[in-house]
Amino acid sequence: MVRGEGGAISVEIARQGGKNELSAQVELAALLLHAGRGGSAVKCAPTLVPQARISQARLERCVRDAGLEAAFERRGASLRCGGASVHFLSAEPSANVVGHTASLLLEVDEAQDVDIEKFDRDFRPMAASTDAPVVFYGTPWGPRSLLEQAKAEHRAAERRDGRRRHFRFDWQAVAAHVPAYRRYVEGERARLGERHPLFRTQYELEVVDEAGRLLDAAALAQVEGSRDRQRVPAAGARYVAGLDLAGPARPDSGELDSTVLTLARVTPGEHAPLIEVVEQQAWQGEPAESLLASLADRLRRVWRVRHVAVDATGLGGPLADLLARRLPAGVVEPVVFSVERKSRLGFGLLAAVHSGRLRLFRADGSREAVECRRQLALARGAYRDERTLRFDVDPSEGDDDYLLSLALAVAAARHVGRPRTARGRTAHIEAGDAVQVEEGVQR
Questions:
Q1: Domain boundary among 139, 169, 199
Q2: Considering the domain boundaries, does residue 29 fall inside one?
Q3: In degrees rounded to 5, what are phi and psi of residue 246?
Q4: Are both 306 and 408 inside the same structural domain?
Q5: Same structural domain for residues 397 and 252?
């Protein structure tokens, strides 16, 4: 940028490792260097709100910290210093960004989430006539993202001429200089598990496979518990439940779907609770009123559950409402399986598995124990471009009711025995870069 050489680079920095601060300092330098001569820079993000707005706020904070407020002027989604300006734009497919030119710099924030066609059509031409440098920032996800495309091009060019174009700083590279960051990420690793896809992509900077088995052999072995199945609750223990309600009969075979209840004991832990499955029960073809009476009695009188997450999708909605009326207020959590909500369930299940916090009762040869393990082994996981997870069992191989009931029980456990957390912030955690991972989903 300083020498006007153009070209492109890609920068991967572990989550909360300083990427937004680096970008803002580069933008500040561009504005100061070209305030007299003029020129414009463009930074695009997957969304205008909050992502592009966060980037703009970060640059404004850098201006304030440098004591340069008098030299800068904010104009909507732009910041100007003399004749130079930076424009913050949305890269959403429907966003109208025509007319902007990047003569100084073109930046792509969270490039793994920016649509390739949108970038090539609307943003890449902004730097075509000026040969402005292009910087792709992000963390990996799937193999077909804009970030991965840029990385492949840059590494190929590096092999040709030896000039570095791709820069990678995983969490350990950042932690080597910031001890507080090391403690934070080690806590996330303990809570999520080091093989959780979000830990792998956001901190280890690994690309996840687009599709495959949800759990590998090591993960399946990890959930095996040593405690016997419980038919009745233990005194003083805290229990939660996950309930997958039966849907309509299968159109291909006419076979009735099952309602599956998973009961789990919850023990508070340092980072997240231990979840031990103590009982699973299934009903098939049970009349609704009889089923509701049986479920309400088990959940309220027998097990005295603190929380139960219930599949409220489709026909499950009215049944979940009826069950809520028979249990104490706030105990029933209706869960509608939207793409985003089911993805959160899947990530939460993976976090519990990979961190060693989920245990099944000892395999005893019962129909419930066998079927639960069969569905876990057959479960498929597909990672989508929008950082969501789709998981199920191929209908040709069977049902996924035990799988979903288990995932719902894990979701219910987060409401019980949550450890106290200190409030406040650490200097290395950036306000615009901060990420909360609840049930394993980036927020």
A1: 169
A2: yes
A3: -65, 135
A4: yes
A5: yes
Per the structure, the count of domains in the chain is 2
Compute the distance between CA of residue 20 and CA of residue 137 in angstroms, rounded to an integer. Answer: 9
Q: Are residues 103 and 48 in the same domain?
A: yes
Structure tokens at 239: 């229990």
For residue 180, being part of any structural domain is answered with: no
324 within some domain? yes
Question: Same domain for 270 and 373?
Answer: yes
Structural domain for 332, as ranges: 210-424
Q: Say how far residue 347 (Cα) sits from the centre of its chain.
A: 7
The closest of 391, 390, 387 to 442, measured between CA atoms, is: 387
The CATH number of residue 337's host domain is: 3.30.420.240
Task: Tell whether 138 and 254 lie within a shared domain.
Answer: no
Task: Specify whether 163 is located in the same domain as 249.
Answer: no
Structure confidence by residue, pLDDT tens digits, 261-300: 999 999 998 888 999 999 999 999 999 999 999 999 999 9
pTM of the model: 0.82
Antiparallel, parallel or unpaired: β 380-383 and 211-213: antiparallel
| Tokens coding 416 | 């019980």
What confidence tens digit (pLDDT) does each residue in 331-371 have?
Answer: 999 999 999 999 999 999 999 999 999 999 999 999 999 99
The secondary element (H helix, E strand) that includes residue 377 is: helix 367-378
**CB–CB of 257/247 below 8 Å?**
yes
State the CB neighbour count (10 A cutoff) for residue 254.
7
**Token pair recorded at residue 4:** 């006007």
In 3D, which of 294, 309, 217 has the Cα closest to residue 264?
A: 309
In eight-state DSSP terms, residue 238 is -
- Residue 438: its H or E element: strand 437-438
* Residue pair 348/404 in contact by the 8 Å Cβ criterion: no
Helix (H) or strand (E) holding 190: helix 179-192
Per DSSP, the three-state class of 318 is: helix
179 domain-assigned: no
Tokens of 321: 């409402």
Average pLDDT score, the chain: 92
Same domain for 249 and 151, yes or no, is no
**Contact (Cβ atoms closer than 8 angstroms) between residue 132 and residue 101:** no
**Same domain for 345 and 412?**
yes
Encode burial over 262-282: b for 16+ CB neighbours within 10 A, e otherwise: bbbbbeebeebbbbbbbbbeb
Q: Whose CA is closest to 184, among 429, 10, 437, 439?
A: 429
SS (H, E, C) 380-410: EEEECCCCCEEEECCHHHCCCHHHHHHHHHH
DSSP secondary structure code for residue 272 in this structure: S
Please calculate the CA angle 405-407-411 and round it to the nearest 5 degrees. 115
